[in-house]
Each structure stands twice: as C-alpha cells, then as structure tokens.
C-alpha cells in the first residue's frame, strides 16, 4: 500500500509535539541552529535522546560532522525564535541570544529545558537521518510552558 505523502504528513500533524532548536558550532564556523519537532527521549541509562533531519536539509552537512549539539526546548513565548531558525538560509545565532555551554555547544537563552549532547550515533531513516545524542549536561527550568505545534500551527496547552 502506497500512502499519499500529503495525507500522511497531515495525519502526523495530528500528534502534538514540542518545538526545539538544535544548536551546534561547525568546525571553523559560527554557532548555528535549526528548528525541529522531531525530538524524543530514547534511554534513561545511559541518558540518550534522538531527533531527525532530512537528508536534503541545507544543515545536514553541519550535523553530519558535528561532535555534539544542544537540544533547546522552546518556551511558549519563543514563537519568534522557532520561526527564525525554521527558514532556509537563516541559521546563524545572533550575538547575545546564546551562551556557550559546558559541552562547548551553544545554548539558547530563555528555553525551558536544554540538553547538551555528544554525538552518539547516526542511523538511516528513509528520507531522514536519525541522530542520537548522549546527554552530558542539562538545564531544566521548574517553570514555564512549552511551545507546542499541532495541526500545522502553534498551540497552547490547556
């Protein structure tokens, strides 16, 4: 059975997700980030997370060669941050919008949770690559609401 790709994408959009910006610094380059909603927990021991990136993404070569990255879980008031790093060609992090974490990777300011990770593995996933990170540092705010995406638009928790 062959699924209609638009219908499949719409069906997947019925599942609400959080919104993250994945950040890293390419060797010899500037700190950069890209918006994703494909983040998930993988293992508690060891502490592993995963996210995926399209093979044809303009950011793929950066993450393919990255030694690590940070998953920045956006707060509900960070729609502008999500939109900024979801655009093609718009991935450089402006000065003052981040700090360098203990891992050496950029950590965005104002997020409700951040996970600094070493690259653990990369797996083929159809038209995506699944990246697995081992969490080495974490910052978790006790307050704040997450930015949620559902049905092709931002949503609020009720």
From TrEMBL:
Annotated transmembrane regions: none
SUPFAM superfamilies linked to this entry: FMN-binding split barrel
Domain Flavin reductase like span(s) in chain numbering: 12-156
Keywords assigned by UniProt, alphabetized: Oxidoreductase
Domain of life according to the entry: Bacteria
InterPro entries linked: Flavin_Rdtase-like_dom, NADH-dep_flavin_reductase, Split_barrel_FMN-bd
A GO MF term: flavin reductase (NADH) activity
EC number(s) per entry: 1.5.1.36
Keyword Endoplasmic reticulum appears in the UniProt entry: no
PANTHER family on file: FLAVIN REDUCTASE, FLAVIN-DEPENDENT MONOOXYGENASE, REDUCTASE SUBUNIT HSAB
Family label: Belongs to the non-flavoprotein flavin reductase family.
Name this polypeptide is given: p-hydroxyphenylacetate 3-hydroxylase, reductase component
Gene: C1-hpah
């Amino acid at each position: 059975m062959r699924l209609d790709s638009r219908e499949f994408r719409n069906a997947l959009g019925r599942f609400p997700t959080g919104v993250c910006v994945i950040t890293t610094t390419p060797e010899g380059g500037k700190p950069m980030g890209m918006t994703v909603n494909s983040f998930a927990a993988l293992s508690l021991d060891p502490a592993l997370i995963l996210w995926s990136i399209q093979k044809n993404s303009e950011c793929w070569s950066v993450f393919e060669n990255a030694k690590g990255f940070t998953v920045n879980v956006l707060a509900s008031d960070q729609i502008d941050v999500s939109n900024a790093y979801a655009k093609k060609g718009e991935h450089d992090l402006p000065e003052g919008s981040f700090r360098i974490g203990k891992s050496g990777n950029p950590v965005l300011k104002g997020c409700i949770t951040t996970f600094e990770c070493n690259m653990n593995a990369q797996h083929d996933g159809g038209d995506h690559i699944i990246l697995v990170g081992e969490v080495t540092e974490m910052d978790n705010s006790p307050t704040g609401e997450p930015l949620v995406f559902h049905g092709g638009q931002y949503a609020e928790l009720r």
